[in-house]
Amino acid sequence: MKQHPQAPARTTGRRRLATLATAAVVVSVAATGCTTGGATSGATGAGKVSTDTIRTVVNADPTTFAPVEVRNADDYAFNRLLFSTLVRRDENNKIVSDLASKWDITPTQGTFTVRSGATCSDGTPITASVVAESLKVFAAPDSKSSFRTLVLGDGPATVTADDAASTVTVKLAQPWTDLLQGMSLHATGIVCPAGLKDPKALTAGDVPGAFSGPYTLTKKQHGVGYTFTLRDDYKTWPAYETKIEGAPAKTIEASVNANASAVSNELLTGTKDIANIRGKDTTRFDGNKDFNTQTIPQGSLYIMFNERPGHPFTDAARRKGVAQALDAKAFNQAASGGLGETYSSFAHPGVPCSNKDSGILIKSDPSAAAKTLAGVKIRMVGAQVFGPNGAANTYVAEALRAAGADIELRNVDLATWSTDLTQNIDSWDVTVMGGINAGGTMYGALSPVIGTTVEKGGLNWGGLENQLVLDLVSKAMTQTDDVQRCGTYQDAQKVMIQEAHVVPLSSLPSQVTIRSGFAMHTFNGQPDESTMRITK
Q1: Are strands 167-172 and 157-162 parallel, antiparallel or unpaired?
Q2: Which residue in 133, 272, 359, 498 has the most C-beta neighbors within 10 A?
Q3: Neighbour tally for 117: CB within 10 Å
């Protein structure tokens, strides 16, 4: 699956619309897993593993190799191998050094000191000017990245370099305390001068000197696989406080395969080393000491409404009725066979300030739901990736039908789903949304349901700008004290949940499955493929 276009296919349309799917939302069931932290390493097997290659799998071909254009989890996976960012997020969202050795942050400005010794894949030194020129592309008003707003806010931003001091300064038009965390995102990956000179070739992965990260792309065959080669001269690994054990692979071979059963077979027969799988095939590794497995949440599933004028869910009582008609545990069973976790927020639990208080949720009450939903005509569009053949959507539709609603459900493929919700905006009333929130911020979780709407070039699929919550976001962006900031975001979540603009339900789980002798870390709900290691 992909993401809000990040997941959906390669949707076309307005710049932000095409990428919007990317950032803030939508599940990328396709790719590698994410977890709340820690490492997944292969169990110690009887035989000694001796190799210089890691064989892994992605669900689909990447849509791009250009950082500013990343849209889905397969893009993210390859991006982490090829490009470095200024900072990274360690466990518990702690910011650590990548290309920046230190930083000085205020709500309206960030100054980053560039580490010495970093080089591009063609040997070009990574100076402050190299970093600044790459970030200028990301920060440009016509940036191709939907992550721009998540990192820099809506206003203009300026990027300057001081090579003598080895510093890069980013100045913002408005307070935006997500700046530092934003500089850890895949979309801010530093592109070297050779890549900036040829954007078209960069997108295709055809600029050998474009890469600032540990690997180069040395072979690609669409629909088949990709080969990455470790740079002999790469020394500036991210300074994670979490211990990264093992040796980086000299070669990473990533094949393309969306069939979970086939990928499981490859793992079990020893032809693949690390893969993320979903569904019933996860049970095939139960009790197998040759593998280490970890169930991780790939996305947050919640109900999202079309709140544009003329649709039934401009009525808060009807939205509340939907919440009352549903049972999160029953939904979780339909979506994942009960393997997921029920959630108290539309934001992943690993997102800073995510609500953990189930007391603010609207309680299930089918009889009360019937009083507001009886006879209401509802058009529901669901993505088939949510549960087997869209079982999660079917559960919701049947629960609303049981409450007396006159509901029409269309279970469709991901590309059709994202197109209908973002372009055919009057064709739907309610949907199950899957949020991967690649930015890992509360604003990233909120952006699909507040602010500028998709028809106006924004990220909001739901159609209600919600000025009250926007004002709370603006307030949070001025607060440098974490407790105060989380208090403000708690207020925002209460508005969204108690007024039933969203109905939190569950996670969409997948399983990171790793053969003996290998390891990979995941941080704050997302994998870091650059931490794949061979352990001996």
Answers
A1: antiparallel
A2: 272
A3: 9
Q: Which of 509, 422, 474 is nearest to 15 (CA)?
A: 422
Provide the residue type at 58 as one letter. Answer: V
Closest CA to 184 of 8, 444, 6: 444
Rounded to an integer, what distance in angstroms lies between the CA atom of residue 412 and that of residue 410? 6
How would you classify the pairing of strands 100-106 and 225-230? unpaired
- Residue for token pair 């940036």: 143
CA 98 to chain centre: 20
In the structure encoding, which two tokens stand for residue 302, read together?
């919640």
Q: Which two tokens stand for residue 163?
A: 């090579």
Token pair, residue 297, equals: 């949440």
**Which residues lie below 8 Å from residue 128, measured CB to CB, with a gap of 6+?**
114, 161, 162, 163, 165, 166, 167, 168
Please give the Cα distance from 327 to 365 (Å, whole number).
9
- Binned average pLDDT, 10 residues per bin, the chain of 536 residues: 35 34 36 38 47 93 93 88 97 93 97 97 98 97 88 94 98 95 95 98 97 98 96 96 94 93 96 90 93 85 98 98 98 92 92 95 98 98 90 97 98 88 95 85 93 88 96 96 96 98 94 93 83 93
Contacts of 71 (CB under 8 A, 6+ apart): 2, 3, 5, 6, 10, 18, 19, 21, 22, 63, 64
Buried-exposed string 145-174: b where 16+ CB fall within 10 A, e elsewhere: bbbbbbbbbeeebebebeeeebbbbbbbee
d(CA 388, CA 232): 44
CA distance 128 to 117: 12
- Threshold 0.70, pTM exceeds: yes
Three-class DSSP labels, 164-224: CCCEEEEEECCCCCCHHHHCCCHHHCCCCHHHHCCHHHHHHCCCHHHCCCCEEEEEEECCC
Residue 223: which residues within 8 A CB-CB, separation 6 or more?
Answer: 61, 256
**Which single residue is written with the structure tokens 């066979």?**
337
For residue 380, give the H/E element and its range. Answer: strand 377-383
State residue 25's pLDDT score: 39
Provide the token pair at 448: 């699909």
- For residues 26 and 7, is the Cβ–Cβ distance under 8 A? yes
Residue 248, classed as helix, strand or coil, is coil
Residue with structure tokens 């976790």?
A: 341
Q: How many CA atoms lie within 13 A of 164 on its CB side?
A: 0
391-402 and 328-336 helices, crossing angle to 10°: 150
Alpha-carbon torsion (412, 415, 421, 427), positive or negative: negative
How many CA atoms lie less than 13 Å away from 107 in the CB half-sphere? 13
C-beta of residue 139 within 8 angstroms of C-beta of residue 170: yes
For 343, the token pair is: 């959630």
For residue 20, the model assigns a pLDDT of 35
Query: What pLDDT shows up at residue 237?
Result: 97
Distance CA 230, CA 353 (A): 37
Q: State residue 54 phi and psi, 5-degree precision.
A: -110, 130
